[in-house]
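@here heads up, posting the sequence + SMILES for the NAP run so it's all in one place. Ping me if the SMILES looks off, I pulled it from an old spreadsheet.
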Amino acid sequence: MLVNAIAAMDLASGIGLDGKIPWKCSDDLKRFRRFTMGDAVVMGRKTVESLPGALDGRFVCMLTRKPGGYPDSQKSQMWFNSLTECLDTLRLSHDRVWIAGGEEIYTHAFALEVIDQVWLTVMNGVWGCDVHFPINSLKDFKSESVENFNDHSLFHFVR
Ligand SMILES: NC(=O)c1ccc[n+]([C@@H]2O[C@H](COP(=O)([O-])OP(=O)(O)OC[C@H]3O[C@@H](n4cnc5c(N)ncnc54)[C@H](OP(=O)(O)O)[C@@H]3O)[C@@H](O)[C@H]2O)c1
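bot reply: prediction finished. Complex structure tokens:
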């Protein structure tokens, strides 16, 4: 199973503010949908709660430390208390999984060295974010490609 991380950050490595993503970039949202369609998506409880609704066509797994989890969540299909257990379960049914934040989950996934590839959008601006992408973790990856767009760039890194 291929494990991807997917994130969008600003020029100060910020990824969120007050529980939300502070910029609007419809091209990035469309790409997130296109890349993840049909696959499993793993998110921390706070990121799942920040979603406007369920992600159609994706199998969303929520990570939480709460014993008993969130079985009634409308925005996720399964919950896990452990990322390792989550990935071991997904391996049985999925070829690709996307680690989709937030900061706590990216940091934990890089520390466990489970990520094979990173798709990182860099927005051209700074939004004073209160959560950040752990960019130091990219030292273990090499840059495969960069595409420049109007208000952002897309970087692809491979371990
Ligand atoms: N720009 C982007 O690409 C992007 C992507 C995703 C999110 N975001 C932003 O990031 C922010 C949220 O990030 P965050 O770091 O505050 O929260 P988060 O990573 O989304 O969720 C944190 C929660 O995940 C659970 N958790 C954390 N580590 C765990 C572990 N090792 N095992 C099991 N469960 C674990 C805990 O849930 P419990 O409290 O329930 O125990 C914790 O409170 C929001 O602003 C969101 O908009 C941005």
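MO: Strands lie at 2-9, 14-16, 40-44, 59-63, 78-80, 96-99, 117-123, 131-132, 142-148, 152-158.
MO: One more: The chain has one domain: 2-158.
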